[in-house]
Each structure stands twice: as C-alpha cells, then as structure tokens.
Amino acid sequence: MGLYTVDLKGQEESIEFGHISGKHNELENYLDFLETRLKLENLRPRTVRNYMKWYKHYINYCKGQRIYELSELNANTIYDWLSIMELQTQQKI
Asked: What is the pLDDT of residues 61-91, one digit of tens each?
C-alpha cells in the first residue's frame, strides 16, 4: 500500500507518492496540513470540509487505480482536481 507524504521544497509544496513502511500517520499529517492551508485561504468551513472530502476521494481513487508511485504531485494539481470536482458537484445540483 502506498503512503502519501508532504515534501516542502523552498516555497513549493508538493506531495510524494511512494512505498513507505512504518509511518501510517503521514497521510493524516498531510490532510491536516492541507486543511490548515485551506482555512488560511479564508474559505467557508463548509467549503473546507467539501475540499477535504474530495481530496480523500482523490486519494482513494489513486489507490483504486493502483497508482502508488508518482514522482511528485504539485499542490496546484491538487487544487485543479478539486476545482473539477466542485464543477461536477455544481452540475449535479
């Protein structure tokens, strides 16, 4: 099973996918980091909850596709994916 870790390089935020053993709390640490980042954007609490839900869905999607080893996924890519999810949700309403 792949775990997801935060990698901060200078000013750039990225997330690394890789096989790491013995550190099962790293995914939760990253999700906490992302939630804090979203709150600093002055988003409504409901919006933050929705983004977190969509991001967890994205992680599960990656696991379902057996995508465990990607070199790096930039935080902007994550926000792009969240925006797509938000548009799809709005279209369903």
From this structure: 766 666 554 434 445 556 566 666 666 666 6
- The whole-angstrom separation of Cα 66 and Cα 64 is 5
Whether the full predicted model's pTM is greater than 0.70, yes or no, is: no
Give the total number of structural domains in the chain: 1
Name which of 6, 18, 85 is nearest 52 in CA terms. 85
Structural domain boundaries, residue 41: 3-92
Beta strands 12-18 and 73-74 are: antiparallel
> What are the distances in angstroms from CA 73 to CA 22, 24, 48, 83, 92?
22, 19, 20, 16, 28
Those residues with Cβ within 8 angstroms of residue 82's Cβ, 6 or more apart along the chain or in another chain: 51, 54, 55, 58
What secondary structure letter does DSSP report for 78?
Answer: H
